[in-house]
Amino acid sequence: MLDEWGLNEDKKWLYEERAKVVVKNLEKRNVNAKYVSSRQEALSAVLEMIPEGATVVRGNSCTLEQIGIIPELRKRNQNKVLDPYEEDASGAWIVEWEEAERMRREAFFSDVFLTGTSAVTLDGKLVNIDGHGNRVAAIIFGPKKVIVVAGVNKIVKNVDEGLLRIQEVATPIVARWHTTKHHLPYGDLPCVKTGICADCNSDWRICRYITIVQGTMLRQKGRINVVLIGEELGI
What does the mean pLDDT of the chain come to? Predict the structure, then answer.
């Protein structure tokens, strides 16, 4: 096993060094950023960023699920929390579509929007491909504060590498996951059938909106906050 050779420490070193570069470059682009070593530290960091009384809306994100932020916010009981993707014990979504859409729209008027990101480049750009568009739209404009959480596996060299990773790795997995877990009609997508992006024109294609956030205007400095986590999280 690799662990027997002590490679985990070397991977941790590499991730941290790369994350330091990303944090530095995000800050240059008027984006607040910090690196934490674990999901537990990420949970604490995100909670500290959310003031008492703030209305919080979340985007769909496996990383948010993995750090456990929504249950902790509800346990803390200091915030109004809107979760369009709330699940029951079996993992099925419990919010009806119309209500979920209302919550997604409320994100634009919220105090805090929580989300993940598809990729973050070494020079500090956030790269996303979205199907519904609510996640990328809210990152760009609307909520007073945006908190982005991302595992170090989301770090890429540049925008082109980020788009390639999303189209060839993340999207096929996400589409298949929604097919098997949430029974959405994505099973006929070429990427679900073959694992390879075909740049299709299917009605159910989930690669619809591509955004590249290159930073914020000076007057919005600190509106976007990125927490990089020293674990492989999300998709």
Answer: 93
DSSP per-residue letters across 28-86: HTT-EEEEESSHHHHHHHHHHHS-TT-EEEE---HHHHHHTHHHHHHHHT-SEEE-TT-
d(CA 33, CA 120): 12
CA–CA distance, 32 with 35 (Å, rounded to integer): 11
Of all residues in the chain, what percent carry a pLDDT higher than 90? Answer: 82
| pLDDT 10s digits, 86-133 | 988 887 889 999 999 999 999 999 999 999 999 999 999 999 999 999
- 69-76 helix and 39-49 helix, angle to the nearest 10 degrees: 50
Rounded to whole angstroms, the Cα distance separating 178 from 116 reads 17
Q: Is the pLDDT of residue 165 over 90?
A: yes
Q: What does the angle CA 22 – CA 28 – CA 30 come to, to the nearest 5 degrees?
A: 105
Q: What's residue 70's pLDDT?
A: 96
Rounded CA separation 70/57 (Å):
10
- Contact partners, residue 125, CB within 8 Å, separation at least 6: 29, 159, 162, 212, 213, 214, 215
Q: Which CATH class is domain 2-229?
A: alpha beta
pLDDT tens across 100-110, in order?
Answer: 999 999 999 99
| Cβ atoms of 188 and 205 closer than 8 Å | no
At 36, list the tokens: 């934490």
Order of strands, edge to edge, in the sheet holding 119-121? 155-156, 119-121, 126-130, 209-213
